[in-house]
């Protein structure tokens, strides 16, 4: 008999639900310390450059919010799906489609825009993301095809489509064949919310998504259905809950939010359409959703932390020549530690031999 | 012989080569899934195999050692997945995603000093007379050793799963872990070994890409092949021989996409590059629509967590 074993708790531990994300962050920092040591950097200096320096100025905090915005938008939608066991992992593709659709409108009305252009682009971005997410939803419901694989395959297709467009139809006619669109006109650019930074209207959308997501999950019958389907699909079946409707709802919702996130990137910090709209926000949002306990408010906090890992990676690259790939390593480690620590929610760790059962 | 016909040989050869990384990864994942574990981290394991195999070969000059380390790196990633899902009972879908995200980042970190270094590639088999045969010579008798190894693994995995006692136990664990546990089989140990085997095979598949197919290291060199391999396992309804046929099919799509451009058909390269991904979706739809068939063939405990007390 092994010395360390897991004993099921009668009831999931509420305290551990909130404690494990903090524990995971602490373990990630500890591992980062060791990793920097192994790579031959001064770990204290490196961690400081990674996690403290980037946010010790107004501009830095603004950048943190700018990067957290698409993460929140994507993760709130994903979390609703994950709660119902709908595994949309193609948010990156839906984000890209939002950028393609919203950006296409900006280019189509180039030189003849007005106040109506930006709202139109938001609707277009949401529609683009929704359309891209509707494909896995339809294939899952009609043909039973795994939405995990189809949504991911469509991400590659969307990225290739974006690449084609910026090399072809979307390319700036006066841009010397650079694979970039024209710079958007003022009518097609997100207004800045906090002067002196790049924080834009998209952040307001993200905060609205958090509030609306919370209401949906905690205060509506649909939220209740999602919970039941996720926890015990059989019970949901007996209760007559329509699983198909929940699949449609969660994929369209997450696709639409991801689409708005992508549109917000090109109409916000980027200001034009480029071959790379996102440094992987759609994938990182998966980590954000789990780290935030699939809860909108938790997601808000988790998104800020993961945004820090993006700007920290960039800052450490410039300041210390650290490889940028460290961001991905940190993000992966964090999710590992979180998943590992989550065992404490449902099990107690017992050390010593098993006691005789009376 | 006409010019078009002369192309058949090289096209066939390229198809078998393009299929090899998928074949390795999908065979390994088929064994993993047969034991009841769904590991979505294939892409991450392939990338770690690709970068470790490449780095060791560059550093030591020994390709066999590189392949060994690649398999070891894949197996280590598999073991990491095993610790999380089998010992700490983490959700398999989420852990698999984490393994891929982690593998993408770590492989880029390990490989950053190796970008742009050329490698010679693995030696090709050359059998006098046979390898020089027209059309089929190069395709059938002139490939790299790994291509043959991948094909040889198909009957071996099949025989193991369906003709040995160990294979029977592995499948029993995948079908009903509580019954297997009650019979005294070590469910967790068996699954751990299956996951590590899957990792080692993915590592080899990735190493074939970086050490031979390309041959060079670049970030994200696998470009979604790990996910295509996962789809192949479903497409093959978990049967090794069908995994091979599926891998050849996808190898064919990949090569067709390259050759269409060669024939001067005016389609943007990005649109053609979408083909393997779209083909994966199509194939997945065609196979999944038969719900009864999937249910009949899928291991009944696939993706379910096992705790001996519950």
Q: What is the helix tally of chain B?
A: 14
Q: For the record, give the distance between the C-alpha atoms at the N and C termini of chain B, rounded to a whole number.
A: 68 Å
Q: Estimate the mean pLDDT confidence of chain B.
A: 88
Secondary-structure class of chain B: mainly alpha
- Oligomeric form: heterodimer
- By DSSP, the count of extended strands of chain B is 0
C-alpha-based Rg of chain A, rounded: 22 Å
Helical coverage of chain A, percent range: 55-70%
CATH architectural type of chain B: Orthogonal Bundle
Largest sheet of chain A: 2 strands, antiparallel
Per CATH, the class of chain B reads Mainly Alpha
- List the helices and strands of chain B in order: HHHHHHHHHHHHHH
CATH topology type of chain B: ABC transporter involved in vitamin B12 uptake, BtuC
Strand percentage of chain B lies at under 5%
């Amino acid at each position: 008999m092994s010395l360390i074993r897991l004993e099921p708790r009668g009831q999931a531990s509420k305290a551990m639900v909130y404690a494990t994300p903090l524990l995971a962050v602490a373990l990630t920092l500890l591992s980062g310390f060791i990793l920097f040591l192994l790579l031959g950097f001064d770990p204290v200096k490196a961690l400081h450059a990674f996690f403290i320096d980037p946010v010790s100025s107004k501009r830095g905090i603004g950048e943190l919010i700018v990067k957290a915005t698409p993460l929140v938008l994507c993760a709130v939608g994903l979390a609703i799906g994950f709660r119902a066991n709908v595994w949309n992992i193609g948010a990156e593709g839906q984000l890209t489609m939002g950028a393609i659709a919203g950006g296409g409108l900006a280019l189509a009305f180039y030189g003849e825009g007005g106040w109506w252009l930006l709202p139109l682009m938001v609707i277009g971005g949401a529609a683009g993301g929704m359309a891209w997410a509707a494909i896995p939803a339809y294939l899952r419901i009609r043909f039973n095809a795994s939405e995990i694989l189809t949504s991911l395959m469509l991400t590659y297709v969307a990225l290739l489509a974006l690449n084609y467009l910026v090399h072809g139809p979307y390319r700036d006619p006066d841009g010397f064949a650079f694979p970039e669109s024209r710079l958007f006109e003022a009518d097609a650019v997100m207004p800045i919310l906090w002067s002196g930074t790049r924080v834009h209207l998209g952040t307001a959308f993200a905060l609205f998504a958090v509030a609306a997501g919370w209401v949906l999950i905690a205060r509506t019958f649909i939220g209740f259905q999602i919970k039941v389907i996720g926890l015990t699909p059989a019970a949901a079946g007996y209760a007559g809950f329509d699983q198909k409707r929940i699949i449609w709802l969660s994929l369209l919702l997450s696709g639409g939010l991801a689409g708005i996130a992508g549109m917000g990137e090109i109409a916000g910090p980027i200001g034009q359409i480029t071959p790379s709209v996102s440094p992987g926000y759609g994938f990182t949002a998966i980590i954000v959703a789990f780290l935030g306990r699939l809860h909108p408010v938790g997601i808000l906090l988790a998104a800020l932390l993961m945004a820090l890992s993006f700007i920290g990676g960039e800052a450490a690259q410039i300041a210390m020549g650290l490889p940028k790939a460290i961001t991905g390593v940190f993000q992966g480690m964090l999710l590992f530690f979180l998943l590992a620590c989550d065992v404490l929610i449902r099990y107690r760790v017992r050390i010593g031999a098993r006691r005789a059962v009376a | 012989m006409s010019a078009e016909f002369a192309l058949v040989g090289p096209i066939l050869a390229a198809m078998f080569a393009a299929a090899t990384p998928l074949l390795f990864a999908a065979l390994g994942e088929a064994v993993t899934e047969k034991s009841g574990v769904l590991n979505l981290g294939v892409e991450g394991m392939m990338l770690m195999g690709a970068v470790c195999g490449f780095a060791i070969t560059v550093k030591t000059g020994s390709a066999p050692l590189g392949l060994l380390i690649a398999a070891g790196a894949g197996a280590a990633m598999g073991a990491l997945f095993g610790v999380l899902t089998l010992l700490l009972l983490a959700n398999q879908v989420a852990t698999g995603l984490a393994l891929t995200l982690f593998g993408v980042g770590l492989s880029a970190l390990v490989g950053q000093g190796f970008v742009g270094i050329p490698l010679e590639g693995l030696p090709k088999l050359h059998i006098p007379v046979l390898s020089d045969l027209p059309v089929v010579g190069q395709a059938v008798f002139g490939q790299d050793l790994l291509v043959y190894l991948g094909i040889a693994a198909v009957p071996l995995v099949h025989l193991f799963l369906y003709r040995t006692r160990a294979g029977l136990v592995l499948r029993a664990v995948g079908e009903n872990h509580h019954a297997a546990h009650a019979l005294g089989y070590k469910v967790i140990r068996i699954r751990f070994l299956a996951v590590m085997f899957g990792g080692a095979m993915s590592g080899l598949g990735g190493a074939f890409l970086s050490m031979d197919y390309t041959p060079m290291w670049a970030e994200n060199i696998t470009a979604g092949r790990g996910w295509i391999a996962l789809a192949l396992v479903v497409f093959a309804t978990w049967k090794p021989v069908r995994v091979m046929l599926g891998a050849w099919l996808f190898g064919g799509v990949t090569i067709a996409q390259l050759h269409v451009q060669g024939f001067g058909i005016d389609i943007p390269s990005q649109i053609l590059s979408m083909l393997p991904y779209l083909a994966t979706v199509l194939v997945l739809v065609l196979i999944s629509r038969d719900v009864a068939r999937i249910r009949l063939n899928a291991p009944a405990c696939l993706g379910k967590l096992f705790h001996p007390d519950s």
